[in-house]
Amino acid sequence: MPAGSILVADDDAAIRTVLNQALSRAGYEVRSTGNAATLWRWVSQGEGDLVITDVVMPDENAFDLLPRIKKLRPNLPVVVMSAQNTFMTAIRASERGAYEYLPKPFDLKELIAIVGRALSEPKARPRENGKPDEFDAIPLIGRSAAMQEIYRLVARLMQTDLTVMISGESGTGKELVARALHDYGKRRSGQFVAINMAAIPRDLVESELFGHEKGAFTGANTRSSGRFEQAEGGTLFLDEIGDMSSNVQAKLLRALEERRIERLGGNESIPVDVRIVSATHRPLEQEITNGNFRADLFYRLRVVTIDIAPLRERREDIPMLADTFLRLAVERYELPQRSLSQGALKRLVEYNWPGNVRELKNTIDRAVIMAEGEEISVRDLPDEITAGIPTSAKAQDEGESDGVRVPFTADFREDRREFERRYITRCLEHTQGNVTRAAEILDMHRQSLQHKLRQLGLGRRYVSVGGETQENHDN
To answer: Residue 359: which CATH number?
Structure first.
């Protein structure tokens, strides 16, 4: 007797054949079609215990069909397949009630396992509780297998309140994943509040988290609410969780267990309703062994773990990331359209990226400013990316004549000074001498940039006028 009846819809005959064979061997009864209309007819007639459907079909998009299926048969599991392997594909599948999202190409063993799980524990997935199309920005980018798994995890978790721990090297995008869990989840109407434990002096962390009463410590002149209260009804993101003191760890554990907090210096018990998402680049299991982190707090925070692979382990994502950062930089700096040469893209893909996605973004931002033409070449990239490439090879990569922008003097300090002069001068030329705007582009304070201008002998060229620094054309 068949273990269950499966309805398959995909306009690719080869995929239908493969699924028919694999599911039949697994003991299921299978019916397949190449269009959405037939699938809908079967579903409306009460056929099938589970649906497997591609997103794009010739007569109707599965995302349009899914709400109708879930309205008519809310307990019918629907597995969505797609070659459009983006974050929004996974989110839209979950928002519209899909049991699971499976990117193409898929693993047949994984598909069989999903079918078995869905049929053994049938349940209605959360119904659509918003309009996915209202989300225009896609915070997570990449088509690698590692990123696809993150998309699927986010889609599964976004309608829950489970505490999530995100692990990964610095610069991999841990906060982006945390924001995705919030922005596409049931708490998106509340606040997303982030706190970086490593960026706050240890003696102030408790006050930042739980707030304080007037007079709780020197300088506490008024009552102040903490991040827990600010995140009420929303999500509290605790970044670099491994940097907390033992005292704060104990108080955080109590807050998670009792869902209540007390302000520093107070005795009022305040109820809180927040979802906790934490992140770390440290191996916390080792910190527990070393006695630096509480095991009970670790397991309370790590109900679900999301591991983000470093960029060097998902190089296939680099072209898409670089293209996105390039487009955003051009828009932000109001520049003409830029493109990456094949040679430059090759170097980006080959580089090891110790700073991960954050380093790639900063590299693209710099290259957009440094490029003299519409195309970003190898010679517009930082030295650490082009290290070991002779000048002639750089030129050959781009089909350009030999030459360098900064003369080599065998004096590292002087070369660096010359590079800074040209880089900052080019940035100021772009902002027409507006130092405040240039400081924003360079990610510096205006005063720091003014100091740097004086150090580089550019102080006379850019002079202060009415509190703003402008180019001096009298030189």
So the answer is: 1.10.8.60
Q: The sheet that has 304-307: what strands, in order across it?
A: 192-196, 235-239, 275-280, 164-167, 304-307
Burial 202-231 (b: 16+ CB within 10 A, else e): eeebbbbbbbbbeebeeeeeeebebbbbeb
Going by their DSSP bridges, the two strands 235-239 and 339-340 should be labelled as unpaired
Which residues have a Cβ under 8 Å from the Cβ of 395 and sit 6 or more positions away? 379, 401, 402, 403
CB atoms within 10 A of CB 411: 10
Residue 249 contacts residue 206 (beta carbons within 8 Å): no
Closest CA to 346 of 318, 365, 375, 327: 318
Q: Is 368 found in the same domain as 423? A: no
Alpha carbons within 13 angstroms on the beta-carbon side of residue 263 total 20
Q: Respond yes or no on whether the N-terminal peptide bond of residue 105 is cis (omega within 30° of 0).
A: yes
Looking at the fold, whether 174 and 133 belong to one and the same domain comes out as no
What residue type is 323 in one-letter code?
D
Query: SS3 for 241-296, per residue?
Result: HHHCCHHHHHHHHHHHHHCEECCECCCCCEECCCEEEEEECCCHHHHHHCCCCCHH
Task: Kindly tell me the sign of the dihedral angle through the C-alpha atoms of 356, 358, 361, 366.
Answer: negative
Q: 218 with 320, same domain?
A: no
Cα gap 310→172, rounded to integer Å: 6
How many structural domains are present in the chain? Answer: 4
Based on the fold, state whether residues 400 and 415 are members of the same structural domain.
Answer: no
Instruction: Give the residue among 197, 283, 206, 215 at the shortest CA–CA distance from 247.
Output: 206
Q: Which residue is it, tokens 């990316």?
A: 385
Cα 242–259–254 angle (5° rounding)?
A: 50
Return per-residue pLDDT of the chain as tens, 475 residues: 457 899 999 998 889 999 999 999 999 999 999 999 999 999 988 899 999 999 988 888 888 899 889 888 888 999 999 887 777 888 888 878 888 888 888 888 889 989 998 888 644 444 333 333 333 343 578 888 889 889 889 988 988 999 999 999 999 999 999 999 998 888 999 999 999 998 888 888 999 999 999 888 887 888 888 999 999 999 999 999 999 999 999 999 999 999 999 999 988 999 999 999 999 998 999 999 999 999 999 999 999 999 999 999 999 999 999 998 998 888 888 888 889 999 999 999 999 999 999 999 999 998 998 888 888 999 889 888 987 555 544 555 554 433 334 444 545 566 667 777 777 887 887 777 888 888 877 777 777 788 788 777 776 555 443 344 455 544 4
- 186 Cα distance to chain centroid: 19
Provide the residue range defining the domain that includes 246.
Answer: 160-309
Q: Token digits for 301?
A: 């925070």
β-pairing, 192-196 vs 235-239, is: parallel
* Domain end point (choices 86, 114, 146): 146
